[in-house]
Structures are given as C-alpha cells and as structure tokens.
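JOB MANIFEST
job_type = single_chain_structure
chain_count = 1
residues = 209
[input]
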Amino acid sequence: LSFSQPWLTLNPNSGSIPASGQLNVVLSIDSTGLSPGDYSGELVTSSPQYPSVITTVSLSIQASGQYDLVISATSNRVNPIPFGNNQVVSGFIYVFVSPENGINQVEFYIDTPSIENASPLKIERIPAYDLAGTDPAGLAMPFDTTLYSDGSHVLTANILTNSGNFLSISSFIISNENVSPELVINPSNSLAFTAVTGQVSSEQIISIG
C-alpha cells in the first residue's frame, strides 16, 4: 500500500492477507498546514500476484469557523467542555453547538467524510442546536450512543449563518462494551473527505486478498 500525498497516512501500510481473508487498514488525512481548497491524491494497493488497484482520495478543506461542538453531562447544558479529540463517550450524551448567536440552522452528520449531497442525521433550527434535538422545555434531548457501534466515529456540524457556512468536526470514541461486528468498507474507485484546517480525520478501509 502506498500513497501520493504527505497529508495521507496508512496504518499499516503493508501486510499479508490469507486466502479468502482481509486486511484492515486505516486511511487518515491530516489537514494541518493546508489552506482551504480542494486536494486529491492516490492510494495504490499492489501485490506481486495481482494487478495494482488505484483509488483516488479527494480532500476538501474549509476554513474553520467561530463555532464549536461542546458536550455537557446534563440536559440543561451546565459546564460544557469541548467535544472531540477522540473523547471516549458511552450511554446518553448531550452535544450542542456553542455559541448559538448568529446561527440559522445546523446540520449534523456522523461518519460522513464528505457532506456534499449527503443526508444529515439531524437538522436543528432552534437554539441551542442540540445533536438529538431540544424538548418543549428547552432542555437538550439525549443522544443515544448505543445506536452506534463501539469504536471511532466523527461528528460533523455544518453551521449555516447569515455570514456563511462553517464546519465543526469532532472525532470521538464510543465505548459501551458492546460486542458487535466491525464495520467493513470495501475499497472503491474514490474516497472523499471534508475537513477544516488543522483537522485530522480517518476512514477505515478494507483490502481484500
């Protein structure tokens, strides 16, 4: 396995695949130092016994905005802290956008490397723009992490304001001690990522032997 751009990394970048087996590979992108814009690279999977397979990887960098995803331990959003950086969560969580001023709408996506033409998990038009919605009393409704597999995930908030759109992207790890099959994504002809400057995102891919 090889890649053509310094913002692409693979772990592992080589290995042996048994007959009818598979090799789990994590493809990561690091937008540190990259200016807003579109980038592309190639992932080459090669073997002495088989023809090489080339996968195009596209990366869209958007300027980081003035809004952040935060998490609170309670539905009244007391003492919120930044959400992300592979924070480990379980059970019900309360995640929302801060600050709320100037926002018209927030679209939430989970595990969506490119939000272009994707359907949001949730659209919120009411402050405080809670991930799971806001109840009639104004309290945050809980987001149930047990609906997702244990492991790494990425939450993206597309924040629409009068002065433009902003992205807030947070990586987190769900740990509910559930035993569930690992998500398998077969290589395709292209992989797409959306990130903000300085953001590290990753997508698990599978190389089939």
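[summary]
The first strand starts at residue 2 and ends at 3.
Residues 43 and 155 are 25 Å apart (CA to CA).
exit_status = 0
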